[in-house]
Amino acid sequence: MNIYSSVDMEGITGLVDRQFVTPGERFYERGQQLMTDEVNHVAEAAFAFGCKRFVVNDSHGKMNNLLVERLLAEIELVSGEVKPYSMVQGLDDSFDGAFFIGYHSRASMPGVMSHTMIFGVRSMWLDGHEIGEMGLNAYLAGYYGVPVLLVAGDDQAAKEAEALIPNVTTAIVKTAQSRSSALCLTPAKSKALLQTKTKEALMKSGKVEPLIANKQPILHIEFANYGQAEWAALMPGAELETGTTVKFAAKDVKEAYQAMLVMTELAMQTTFC
Fold first, then answer.
1. Given 205, 237, 253, which residue is the final one in a domain?
2. Which positions does UniProt annotate for Zn(2+) 1 binding (predicted)?
3. N or C: which end of the chain has fewer CB within 10 A?
């Protein structure tokens, strides 16, 4: 069995605000270590179950957060940017399942550090279904016939995953108290939980179906202000539909994914004076 893992940072236990997930901030190095530890815990359980290949894609910020020298020797790491498929770079049909570790809930929803790609996104839809990073990543996995077997993060990320992916296994390593506080498991407790849930996810892998998008999906992104939407709509094929919502009709979910990346990058060019 080959497993692909996309690893974000906001959903790791103990990480509750930007000081833990932003390079140069007070607790960032602690955040890196805790993130690396959680990856190791999951990979260790997967290998013990019989997994032959475990690929990890660093999916937070500049995507160079994981401490490669502290990863299990058998893990393969995709690190750095720019990546054509960002949080799911390297995923293809050679994998039997995908794990999303350290994930958070989508923009405009409760949850620790909830957002969707950039803070300028209010909401995002694929064919009318509201989704966040987790959803779009799961649909791209589905394009390759790969089911998302495990989602680890806070309670709100788990809630989102369970509504999106029938029979997915979730591991709740912290419970949101607000957007920047949580009731957290200790690393020892999170290790035990993650390893139990990894085994559970692999045992029930046959019960989870890939999340399949329409063949020619329609992507909508609602931005926080008009300037961001205006920038995003400059991308060929995109159109400013209503208010601050931009529409893109894609030929497939891969194109929709890359359109999202380009539109959000363009939107970040907006200034406020």
1. 205
2. 8, 10
3. C
